[in-house]
Amino acid sequence: MTVSASAFDALRQDALAGLARATDEAGLEQWRVEWLGRQDGRLTRLLRSVREQPAAERPAFGAAANGLKQALEAALGEREEALRREALQALTTTDALDVTLPGRPQALGRLHPVTQTLRDCVQAFAQMGFRVVEGPEVEWAAYNFDAVRIPEDHPARDMWDTIWVDTLIGGERKMLLRTHTSPNQVRVMERMQPPVRVIVPGKCYRQEATDATHEWMLTQIEGLAVDEGIRMSDLKGVLYEFARQMFGADRKIIFHHSYFPFVEPGVEMAIDCFICRGLGAACSTCHGTGWIEILGAGMVHPEIIDNVGYDSARHTGFAFGLGIERVALLRWGIEDIRNFYQNDVRFLEQF
Ligand code: FA5
């Protein structure tokens, strides 16, 4: 069989007319199989028939068939592109979808305000040379109470109405959710030798009647420094520097005497109330006192120094237990601590 130049032209026109009738992906594929399909495509068959041509005509036939194949492949590519453009155009002109509208932003999470405050406090103490260590949240009563001089019948145990773990050991409940980070004073001294300068951040749990400044779960940072010659003035210097960094130089700070069985002497540090500035007897945030207590502190009791195997004649130390939610209240002027753990996104996304 020989195919004349005009026959090639007719084939080309036939193919291009078929391509113009294809209006979607399926139509294009059908056309491709009909013309360019490897098994039985019309052009594939034509190319195979080169062998059957008289020897003298083979080169011209082959060249014409190949030229037609390339032309059809190019035409297919163009038609695909044209259909894609048409489809996009159709999308932009229908009311249902406006592809030019900006996308909806993804809501990004952020650190909880108490976590932010905890990190800032940790950094302030780290800059003063304190190293971070951690202790268990489920604690032995022996560490939480006895090791820090709060024996079974001591009235101080009432201050920390406790959430006990129900497991009985030797018929007694001996484990609890720690009520404060102070057991870590002992845990740290048991495994380190002076000089000690550590902070221990973590959650604590108490059976509290909650109010504007009390939650049943609270975050504390315990601080401990033990060395030769550590004095109360060192404690005050560290705490003043911390308060200056967290609250700025113009906030008022007060130290009250206080009692904690594990320090002697003991103090509490408070910051002036940002709500009433000390003027409101009806202020629910500071209970009319004008001050918001943020930490308890003092000189580590010599008996505890000796109990861990140090020598209290040589080594002295200070400790403090700082409430992080209270710091967060003060730095941002939040009236009620209970906001922090109510999981209201409208509150949390303000930080
Ligand atoms: C203690 O927990 C002592 N362990 C602190 C201490 C450490 C004293 C080292 C001396 C030496 P207190 O119960 O006062 O003390 O708590 C310390 C701080 O934790 C408070 O000043 C307050 O900031 C915070 N805090 C206490 N109870 C709550 C509560 N229910 N909700 C929120 N914050 C609290």
CATH architectural type of the largest domain: 2-Layer Sandwich
Sketch the major β-sheet. Answer: 7 strands, mixed
CATH superfamily of the largest domain: Bira Bifunctional Protein, Domain 2
**Biggest sheet: strands side by side, in what order?**
1-6-7-11-10-9-8
Mean pLDDT: 92
What's the shape? elongated
Bound ligands, named by name, code or SMILES: adenosine-5'-[phenylalaninyl-phosphate]
| Class by SSE composition | alpha+beta
Report the order of strands and helices. Answer: HHHHHEEHEEEHEEHEEEHEHH
Q: What count of domains describes the coordinates? A: 2
Rg over alpha carbons: 40 Å
CA distance, first residue to last residue: 83 Å
Q: How many beta-strand segments?
A: 11
Number of helices: 11
CATH topology label of the largest domain: BirA Bifunctional Protein, domain 2
The amount of helix comes to 25-40%
Per CATH, the class of the largest domain reads Alpha Beta
Structure explained in plain terms:
By secondary structure, this protein is an alpha+beta fold. It folds into two domains: 89 residues; 236 residues, 2-Layer Sandwich (BirA Bifunctional Protein, domain 2), CATH 3.30.930.10. The protein is built from eleven helices and eleven strands. The strands form three sheets. The chain has a seven-stranded mixed beta sheet, sandwiched between helices. Strands 2-5 form a two-stranded antiparallel sheet. A two-stranded antiparallel ribbon has the order 3-4. α2 runs antiparallel to α4 and α3 runs antiparallel to α4. It is elongated. The structure holds adenosine-5'-[phenylalaninyl-phosphate] (FA5).
